Amino acid sequence: MSEINLVQAINQGLRQAMEADERVLVLGEDVGLNGGVFRVTEGLQKLFGPERVVDTPLAELGIVGASVGLAVAGMRPVCEIQFDGFLPAIMDQVICHIGRIRNRTQGRNTVPLVIRAPHGGLIHAPEHHSESPEAYFTHTPGIKVVVPSTPYDAKGLLMAAVQDPDPVVYFEPKALYRAAKGEVPDNPYVVPIGKARLAREGTDVSLVTWGAMVHTCLKAAERLEAEGISTEVLDLRTLTPLDVEAVLATAEKTGRVVIAHEAPNTGSWAAEISCLIHERSILKLQAPVARVGGFDIRMPLFRLEKYYVPDADRVVMTVKKTLSF
Q1: What is the CATH number of domain 197-323?
Q2: CATH class of 2-184
Q3: Which among 103, 141, 201, 283 is least buried, having the fewest CB atoms inside 10 angstroms?
């Protein structure tokens, strides 16, 4: 057991997955010699060679397209998209092929690949480098979407994603790359895809969230606790398949739910969760489900970024509004 950060946990997970299965390979822009823009793949090319840690051209659609072919042929590619804002370039492969091949071939072929991408804002990056595009992928049938918030989950979910027979989009909260630290087992392990984590127990209100916003919600919960408000925090970990049982359980336990995320509220995954709770648990609610998210604009540049991404103040304000209903 070692105390490491999110980058180190993902790197360790990739290394152990490649050691365990020679079919696993990593490909993407600058993932080899430079170790990736965030150094997540640092040292892997030295260990496994350029045939298994492949520096690709600057062509996201080509990276994912090649990975589809490799996966259908029996390999287990893990491809990196440098920044979340570059993900729209791959949507042709995602929508037309990755999510359809199992159905198209009546189960004869699967696409066991992982698409890794940084996620979210608060790193003072330029345009296209700070996005929260998870809704694009959760809306696409046949694809699993995970967003870890701790080093332990980052390694375990990655190893589960590599072993999964279906395609997995694996978002890495970039604000947590080196800020989130925790104890991680040195040996390989998996965190099951599709299971949420109760990050904090409470009785008055539930915060449902994922990624970097988990830590924001935990800060908000501490402030609310000081005011006598008991706040539960549910870390989804997996967006699809969603742990519906865990979501409904916390909603029915407290009767009040606030969903916190970085993406714009319109058409968001938070909207889907809100609808789910209202459809299945409305008689157990004491207030309408509330959402605190980004605004319906593009992520602004760094001078305004902190006003766009919800902070603990906005979460606390939304919780108090919900409690006063």
Answers
A1: 3.40.50.920
A2: alpha beta
A3: 283
